[in-house]
């Protein structure tokens, strides 16, 4: 099947094309109202195009949903592969993976909503492509966690832990504000610190954590403490 290309301009000052505007506005509508509750007429009105002009850029409403869903997933897979191949500790790569994920979420909040929660409306064939891309991304995280375990950075990690980590990152599209007090990279660092706190072979930290009088300095955990 021929793949369509989906993109939304990221560079400041970049000129948005008609297709990019269609994808952005449609993602916002799907995220707010749901795929089935959003009609083509509503999309036409929102983007300010006629029907023939719209279908010059998209093949169908379903393919529009696919294009919106697959773009952020492919983006994070490409960058996650690069990060996983870095000559760095697994802990450092966990931080970088977390930061990249929140960076893309901050730029594409509506697209992440659609990819995770609206793509179930796709045909089995198209949905399978979305699921495969999600599995590829999860496999990269699993590889880094396994390499950290093999290097002695942390204890064996049950598969359920990875589901929890990714679930924590997935949910950020609901509230992450790129213009908020904390930058996405800072929030990602905090999340990664929490993950590493749980993974590290540091029984002293775990024991102290149970004490209500103990304050843990999260800023020094990621990458700076030997297991």
Automatic annotation (TrEMBL):
Keywords: DNA-binding, Repressor, Transcription, Transcription regulation. GO terms for molecular function: DNA-binding transcription factor activity; transcription cis-regulatory region binding. This is Transcriptional regulator, TetR family. Residues 16-76 form the HTH tetR-type domain. The keyword Transcription applies. InterPro entries: Homeodomain-like_sf, HTH-type_TetR-like_transc_reg, HTH_TetR, KstR2_TetR_C, Tet_transcr_reg_TetR-rel_C_sf. Gene3D superfamilies: Homeodomain-like (1.10.10.60), Tetracycline Repressor, domain 2 (1.10.357.10). The lineage of its organism: Bacteria, Bacillati, Actinomycetota, Actinomycetes, Mycobacteriales. It comes from Rhodococcus wratislaviensis.
